[in-house]
Amino acid sequence: MVEKLIKRSIHEAENPIEITLREAFCVLEPKLRPPFPLTIPTQEGYTNLNSAILYGILCEPHMAKVHVKHLHGIITDGYEYFTSILVKIVIELYGKLVDSVKRQLIWVTHEMVDVSAVGYDGLLVALLRQIVGGDFGEENLWLCFEMVNLFSSKWVCLLEEVPLVLSGALYVFLRLLADHCRVMNIPKIESLRQMEIAFCVRMLRENFSLCLRIGRDLVRLLQDLVHVPEFRSIWKDLLYNPSAFKVDGFVDISQMYGTRTSRWYFLLRITPEMESQLRFLLTRVKFGSQKRYQVWFARKFLAVPERKGVVIDIVRFICCAHHPSNEIIHSDIIPRWAVIGWLLKYDLKHYVEANLKLALFYDWIFFDEKVDNIMNIEPAVLLMVHSIPRYIDITHSLLEFLFILLDNYDVERKEIVSRGISTALHALTRKGVVQSLDVLTSCDMLSPIFKERLGKLLSDWQFQHRKEFQSTNIPPGGIPSSSSSLESQTSA
Amino acid sequence: MKPEETMEPETTLQPLKNIVPAAQNNINAKFILLDKGRVTLEGQYKTCLALVADETAAVHFQLWGDECDVFEPGDIILLTNGIFSYSRNNLVLRAGKRGKAQKVGEFTLAFVETPNLSEIRWAPHPNDSKKYVQQAVVSPHSRIFIPPR
Questions:
Q1: A324: closest CA among A382, A366, A405?
Q2: Which portions of the chain have biased composition (kind: Low complexity) (chain A) (predicted)?
């Protein structure tokens, strides 16, 4: 009896990947026991042998060491094909895998790192994406533990070979810590939390220049951890003593604000299944026909209260990593702002809602046309404009939040935030995302104070630009580094 | 090509809008389950009416036995050798004894709720009484599973 790779319910079709691997295993099984044949296989024979050995490793734990030895003996492509099937299994099947197969998967991943297999970076990324935010189930916490353990124990080699993946792992664990530091009374969470904190702190303290590659969203994530003692000291150094990080040229936190975060990082906190459903929604579903899809999506991903925090990651994903084509923009497909509006209405805890709005406006407050993309800031303005008049409460609460950011996000660097927001507003009108902002500034349903402040932001920008035209010699980022109230803001 | 491959060509899937009532297990289609009604007992077997649809049409689907518990809204179902016929005066699609319904995915299938083939009055073809043709639209969408607004 051949063991199974995945759990399958009755009336569920067999998975083609499993069929291919199992068939290879069944055909080649006699050759998978020592003594191994010395013949060199053909190309087709080689891929089949890879598949058969992989199936053996995953489904016959007691034989895994023999299989892996066999694998090392036959490899001629630097494990490229072998790793590519592993990646496919993780992306397409992870959630359905039998528990013992998951254990084997992690074990063989360690092996692939040890032999520097071609493509093992992709395998690590695929596994990181399978960790579900806010899921405190045993299986999910086990995966967190295994991954943080892998990144910590293979630190030196990963730092040398795939530093970017380490920065991705930092992004993932900082984000997970925001959830893991909020709960109590969950068995094993304390030791997991300590390992995650140790990994993140080591990254930030020893390899800050690598961490800087994440860009401004690193600040956004750290902000959520300001109440954790280990991160409080990092915050203090970021604000008052940036030289503690020993990175030449890093003198102020505003340098982090100025770096747009690559879309790659946002994908790390969205499972592939969630990504494919969101992309389907945003490319195939007509505006007005989304209701059923939204119900299904919510039932699958947002039903457990602790897991609703993923809406923050979804908003970052939609704003920064899913940019529809012009053809889609001008079609009757549901627009991005409408999906975000739906999430915003989804009965969220106060801090989740605030973080969702921060995620929505995060590229506004540091907007710089030289580095930023108009598509990242488009959903927020369209959501505000299109919510008038029926959902005026949304427009109102978003504008209110924008002004809270302007006043409080970084009191010592208010000028940066103010310039970011007004530049964003101008770019949005100049590029025709909205015809004009009159719809906001002359809306009777909005508070006069908001309208006045909005008007001031727009006129300040014109004034600023005239000044910049006259003198081209403004020092870049010439903002002095001193104290900031960010810490008190975020810990409130 | 081996002889058996020519004997059994891969089944082609029909768009739902093309299915016609017949006393045959001749329907092969892929669709998404939109809604499920209450499970009732028909003798000793569970049965449950559901709404399914693809990009071309919707139709009522009768779930039978464990199908009632296993399939959920949002599931993509592959039906092979199903039957579209009258069952206790309702025009329904179902797997029947000789057909098979299998879950092949979730979510990522576009659908329409109009026309609904179970809400069409069919009449025998004037020249061939074994064939059915559409006679009138009873309702543009399901009267049992009202589209959400």
A1: A382
A2: 474-485
DSSP tally for chain B: helices H, then strands E: 2, 8
Chain B hits for A298, CB-CB cut-off 8 Å, are none
The ipTM estimated for the assembled molecules is: 0.92
Angle between helices A138-153 and A99-114 (to 10 degrees): 10
Which burial class, exposed, middle or buried, applies to A357 when counting CB atoms under 10 A from its CB (0-12, 13-18, 19+)?
buried
Tens-digit pLDDT profile for chain A (492 aa)?
568 999 999 999 999 999 999 999 999 999 999 888 878 889 999 999 999 999 999 999 999 999 999 999 999 999 999 999 999 999 999 999 999 999 999 999 999 999 999 999 999 999 999 999 999 999 999 999 999 999 999 999 999 999 999 999 999 999 999 999 988 888 789 999 999 999 999 999 999 999 999 999 999 999 999 999 999 999 999 999 999 999 999 999 999 999 999 999 999 999 999 999 999 999 999 999 999 999 999 999 999 999 999 999 999 999 999 999 999 999 999 999 999 999 998 889 999 999 999 999 999 999 999 999 999 999 999 999 999 999 999 999 999 999 999 999 999 999 999 999 999 999 999 999 999 899 999 899 999 999 999 998 888 777 777 666 565 544 444 333 333 333 333 333
Backbone angles phi, psi at A376, to 5 degrees: -75, -25
B21-35+45-137 homologous superfamily: Nucleic acid-binding proteins (2.40.50.140)
Crossing angle, helix A336-344 and helix A310-321, to 10 degrees? 170
Tell me the residues of A at the B interface, defined by beta carbons under 8 Å apart: 9-13, 276-277, 280, 284-285, 291-293, 295-297, 299-300
Three-class HEC string of chain A: CCCCCECCCCCECCCHHHHHHHHHHHHHHHHHCCCCCCCCCCHHHHHHHHHHHHHHHHHCHHHHHHHHHHHHHHCCCCCHHHHHHHHHHHHHHHHHECHHHHHHHHHHHHHHHHCCCCCHHHHHHHHHHCCCCCCCCHHHHHHHHHHHHHHHHCHHHHHHHCHHHHHHHHHHHHHHHHHHCCCCCCCCHHHHHHHHHHHHHHHHHHCHHHHHCCCCHHHHHHHCCCCCHHHHHHHHHHHHCHHHHCCCCCCCCHHHHCCCCCHHHHHCCCCHHHHHHHHHHHHHCECCCCHHHHHHHHHHHCCCHHHHHHHHHHHHHHHHHCCCCHHHHCCCECCHHHHHHHHHCCCCCHHHHHHHHHHHHCCCCCCCCCCCCHHHHHHHHHHHHHCCCCCHHHHHHHHHHHHHHHHHCCHHHHHHHHHHHHHHHHHHHHCCCCCCCHHHHCCCCCCHHHHHHHHHHHHHHHHHHHHHHHCCCCCCCCCCCCCCCHHHHHHC
Are residues A13 and B103, on separate chains, in Cβ contact within 8 Å? yes
Element of type H or E holding B3: helix B3-7
Interface test with B, best of A6, A11, A93 (most B CBs within 10 A): A11
Q: Burial, A184: exposed, middle or buried (Cβ in 10 Å; 0-12, 13-18, 19+)?
A: exposed
d(CA A115, CA A53): 17
How many contacts (CB atoms, under 8 Å) link A and B? 45
Residues of B with CB below 8 A from A299's CB? Answer: 74
